[in-house]
Amino acid sequence: xxxxxxxxxxxxxxxxxxxxxxxxxxxxxxxxxxxxxxxxxxxxxxxxxxxxxxxxxxxxxxxxxxxxxxxxxxxxxxxxxxxxxxxxxxxxxxxxxxxxxxxxxxxxxxxxxxxxxxxxxxxxxxxxxxxxxxxxxxxxxxxxxxxxxxxxxxxxxxxxxxxxxxxxxxxxxxxxxxxxxxxxxxxxxxxxxxxxxxxxxxxxxxxxxxxxxxxxxxxxxxxxxxxxxxxxxxxxxxxxxxxxxxxxxxxxxxxxxxxxxxxxxxxxxxxxxxxxxxxxxxxxxxxxxxxxxxxxxxxxxxxxxxxxxxxxxxxxxxxxxxxxxxxxxxxxxxxxxxxxxxxxxxxxxxxxxxxxxxxxxxxxxxxxxxxxxxxxxxxxxxxxxxxxxxxxxxxxxxxxxxxxxxxxxxxxxxxxxxxxxxxxxxxxxxxxxxxxxxxxxxxxxxxxxxxxxxxxxxxxxxxxxxxxxxxxxxxxxxxxxxxxxxxxxxx
Length: 491
Hints:
This protein is an alpha/beta fold and 491 residues long. Helix content is 64%, strand content 10%.
């Protein structure tokens, strides 16, 4: 419509400037521009909606698989974060930016050829002829780009894993004076990412060069043909008659033939990263179906093996209620056994029947804290918990005095380190969160550590009372807690 408007206005001007021809051409130009604007905006909206839906579905599928990877073969924390955040974002960008323009690049050039053919069959043939070697060139460039993108994704995951691991162990690095060596290691990993990124960009520039060459060639050939045809200077008998309107229309439409492919080239980087991310996420192991008990937990000759360490065999059963204490010296495997019961570590031997993840509450030694309010941190396991349930749990673990001392109470904002919380208070936040979640099985790791005697006795009484209405398994060194247990498993 835009091209026909331009051609109509120019023909009217050359014919003497008739008002009706100029008005019709101008109206078509404006209307065509508005329609293009509306279509491009709609395509972006639909693309981003598709990308958000894809990311939501991928998170729902991938996050449980990532959370289930535990044990000595589990990837580093930084690599796991790359899988769950960066790779999914790359797939979302591909769906939002690349997929819509790929559909356009598939159909629009053929549509342009058909439209141009109504005015000039020769110009349409020229456009179509330049498309064939262009497609071959893009296929060759795309194969090299795909390999470069795969290597870049692997390097980024390795750098993320290295960075997070070294940041977490900075005190140890400083203690042994290894700053220079670690800096060289991090610098080498960063340089590897930079080199692989340059390789990806090199492939992208090669694709763009191929595109621009054939786009310029096709427009130039069409322009030469139309100009010589209008001037009657073709070196061969004219296969068709072109007037000014048809010639101008074909010349305006010629750049449109490669415009969708230019947009495709601009979004090609998202395609490369998205495909590399999809390939990497496909390697995340699927969830392993574990036997689930109808109620409680049952371990039969369970063995958990770590490099240089073996836990078990261990056998015990716990029904719907009761308290089991796992005791033993530091490093004996108490936390690892809890992780196996939670479904985070697969036993190497034996049979372990436990409840599904949605029926298990976990209170760890270092509970997860998010940079938000204390109330929202307490509701992580049950976001719809009412204020009465939160207040009851806070009082049960002995945090009510702490909350009362803060100006904003439960609305007090904390950071991910829990900067104004002591170690014992952070543990009690984790235990309160587990109580609010109200699950059938409660797992607690050293719940009385870092607490003074009165606070520890309060937690012991709380867990003993909770064991009357749900199953409770605790890893502990505390003899007072072990004294009220229904069964003690000594490692």
